[in-house]
Write a structure and sequence with these properties.
alpha/beta, binds 3-hydroxy-5-(hydroxymethyl)-2-methylisonicotinaldehyde
Length: about 270
């Protein structure tokens, strides 16, 4: 005998980061931990270079191959897939393919993690990608999760304290209509890592005691993926943001260390210990 299980289906359109700390690998682990069935379409492959300061080596996936992955996923889960996370895009062509795929069906939740500059990109090219992301993906999103730097870029403001982070979240929302979870993380002074949620009605500050003063790799990807999973299960954007903050705080508390100069978060932080 068997039974048919029907978990919420989630999709990440993101880059691979081979060591597993960030990107699609972190997203899929997060999707699984939060009880959803994760799928992934890869936009690019990042391979750190251990003999060159762990710099990003970036290979883009052929846009046709990305379109094929999305075609397979969307055809397989027609009627079952209504929630997607967008991570690192890597090129303007990728953004065009993703925008087309998004427009090919109805979505309840489109979570945009606006990964702007990646070390492997030429500055000129990165700027083109950033412009395309703002012009073509932000209008299709329902929630966006900029970090400190990305919130400065999207709002055109300098952010050095909580009041400015709130102003930036309001401005990004007012210009795009998208619910904003703007992450101060460890980058603003003070004992707490604070993020700001704003959806045009609720403005909430999500705070947690800082755990060290260095950013942990994978936290941003995992936060957006956790928001995605919680939305897929039917929570509101604010509930999803609160739950995602707990998920990441627990994961940073139980971080992993390896040879890279920064630690990575562990997605199993909220698991009940056996
Ligand atoms: O954390 C941003 C990020 C997203 N996606 C991929 C990455 C990184 C950072 O390394 O490699 C694939």
């Amino acid at each position: 005998m068997y039974s048919i299980h029907a978990p919420a289906v989630t999709l990440t359109i993101a880059g691979s980061e081979a060591t597993g700390g960030a990107g699609a690998q972190a997203d899929l682990r997060t999707f699984q931990e939060l009880g959803t069935y994760g799928t992934a379409a890869l936009t690019c492959i990042v391979a750190y270079d251990p003999s060159n300061d762990w710099n990003h080596r970036l290979t883009r996936i052929d846009p046709v191959v990305l379109a094929h992955q999305l075609e397979a996923i969307q055809a397989n889960f027609t009627g079952q897939l209504d929630t997607v996370k967008l991570g690192m895009m890597g090129s303007v062509e990728t953004i065009d393919v993703v925008a087309n795929a998004l427009q090919a069906q109805e979505w309840k939740n489109v979570v945009l993690d606006p990964v702007l500059i990646c070390k492997g990109q030429e500055p000129g090219e990165a700027q083109d990608t950033d412009e395309a992301l703002k012009a073509k993906l932000l209008p299709l999103a329902t929630v966006t999760t900029p970090n400190h730097f990305e919130a400065e870029q999207l709002s055109g403001m300098t952010i050095s304290n909580l009041a400015e982070l709130k102003d930036a979240a309001r401005k990004i929302h007012d210009e795009s209509g998208v619910a904003v979870l703007a992450k101060g993380g460890v980058r603003l002074d003070g004992p707490e890592a604070v993020d700001v949620f704003y959806d045009g009605t609720d403005l909430e500050v999500l705070g947690a005691a800082k755990i060290g003063n260095h950013a942990v790799s994978g936290a941003g990807c995992s936060l957006a993926a956790a928001v995605t999973a919680e939305l897929a299960k039917g929570r509101t954007p604010l509930q999803a943001a609160e739950r995602a903050k707990d998920f990441v705080t627990a994961g940073i508390n139980q971080r992993m260390s390896a040879a890279t100069p920064y630690d990575v978060m562990w997605q199993g932080g909220l698991r009940k210990q056996a």
